[in-house]
Write a structure and sequence with these properties.
Elements (H helix, E strand, L loop, with lengths): L4 E6 L3 E9 L2 E8 L3 E2 L15 E6 L2 E6 L22 H14 L3 E9 L1 H16 L3 E2 L5 E11 H13 L9 E7 L4 E7 L2 E2 L5 E3 L3 H15 L8 H10 L3 E3 L2 E3 L5 H19 L7 E5 L3 H11 L5 E3 L6 H16 L21
Parallel strand pairs: 1-7, 7-9, 10-16, 16-17
Antiparallel strand pairs: 1-2, 2-3, 4-6, 5-6, 8-9, 10-11, 11-12, 11-13, 14-15
Helix pairs in contact: 3-8, 4-5, 4-6, 6-7
């Protein structure tokens, strides 16, 4: 029997998680980071069909989370986006949902992440939160987590790049910069090999949500509103490169390239100021769900560098978490004193 290692990258926009990892193949999945209050464990019966969601209990209250959760939400979708995110019931509901989809009832090591600016202050709190007691995932089931490893989110991307391209890239011996464009935060991590330079690593609240908010205000004003409430629709239009329809008007997202670049320029400029010198950075790795939106601004500053990217950048952090966790288990087996969970605990994810 082997130790069960799993990973969750719980972002403000999407909850990414590992469903299986075997023979060097890592399978990932994700759902929106949105938790909707539910009347009970069965949620709400739909008129047609059934949503791909699950209901999980947190502190005596039921929440619906999962792939089709947007169908359960009202037009106003509350998403906590602040520095005390890990203390919210929504955070635990999303964690419980990811654990339920994983299909494991015992996890020997769970790897999770935090924004760079919050890592040192909150990593111990997050470890305690997830290890404190079994996490309920239904009315009669819970997941026991034996050990928790918390890392700065972009560190996962660095390990994912290493996993995809190997040590011959020179990452282990040179200075690297990982730029992670998330939903709320724009994070960057500067390293020498895998060792982090904390004074040249940070995050600012200039992520994709700022872009969406700016576009929402412009479209809203054009249509006699203070702001268009459909941020998810704007996000979808940007990702699919299809027009957004508002009152039968078609909005081509190319119209807002100047606004996108203005916010991205601010984020990259803040990073450039804090890093100081960039001539000795050998590898610049760009990841995150908003990587394509910010690439133009990154290229403007790092115009003498080749910008490196990974396959499926949305999952870069969580794949790197998994790779790091498996290395940790392999290199430090003495930390794990109990036997691994039975192989049945590694069953396919529920409803994936």
């Amino acid at each position: 029997m082997t130790l069960v290692v799993r990973s969750i990258d719980l972002g403000f926009g999407n909850t990414k998680f590992i469903t299986s990892s075997a023979n060097g193949k890592i399978d990932c999945s994700h759902f929106p980071s949105l938790a909707v209050l539910a009347p009970g464990e069965k949620g709400v019966v739909e008129l047609v069909g059934k949503r791909k969601t699950v209901c999980v209990p947190v502190r005596g209250v039921w929440y619906e989370v999962g792939y089709d959760v947007e169908q359960a939400a009202s037009s106003f979708k509350a998403r906590p986006r602040h520095e005390r995110y890990i203390e919210t019931a929504e955070y635990m509901a999303l964690t419980a949902g990811a654990l339920r989809y994983m299909g494991c009832r015992t996890i020997d090591l769970l790897v999770v992440g935090l924004p760079v600016s919050e890592y040192l202050a909150k990593r111990k709190d997050l470890e305690k939160l997830l290890k404190k007691e079994p996490i309920p995932i239904s009315g009669d089931e819970a997941v026991t987590i034996k050990e928790v490893l918390v890392v700065a989110q972009p560190h996962g991307a660095l390990f994912d790049y290493l996993r995809q391209h190997g040590e011959e890239t020179g990452i282990m011996e040179t200075r690297n910069l990982v730029v992670d464009v998330g939903y709320r935060t724009f994070d960057w991590l500067t390293t020498e090999g895998l060792k982090v330079y904390s004074n040249m690593s940070f995050s600012v609240s200039l992520g994709v949500s700022q872009v969406l908010g700016t576009i929402a205000r412009k479209i809203g004003i054009e249509n006699g509103m203070a702001e268009l409430s459909d941020l998810d629709g704007i996000d979808r239009a940007l990702r699919t490169r299809k027009p957004l329809v508002v009152y039968q008007k078609h909005y081509d997202m190319k119209k807002f390239l100047g606004d996108i670049d203005a916010i991205a320029d601010q984020a990259v400029g803040e990073m450039f100021t804090r890093i100081g010198k960039i001539y000795d950075i050998r590898n610049v790795v760009l990841v995150g769900g908003g990587a394509s939106l910010y690439k133009r601004s990154v290229v403007k500053v790092f115009d003498r560098h080749k910008i490196l990217q990974v396959a499926d950048p949305l999952f870069a952090n969580v794949r790197g978490f998994q790779y790091l966790g498996e290395r940790h288990v392999r290199d430090k087996p003495e930390i794990f004193t109990s036997k691994a969970a039975p192989a049945a605990d590694q069953s396919p994810a529920v409803g994936a």
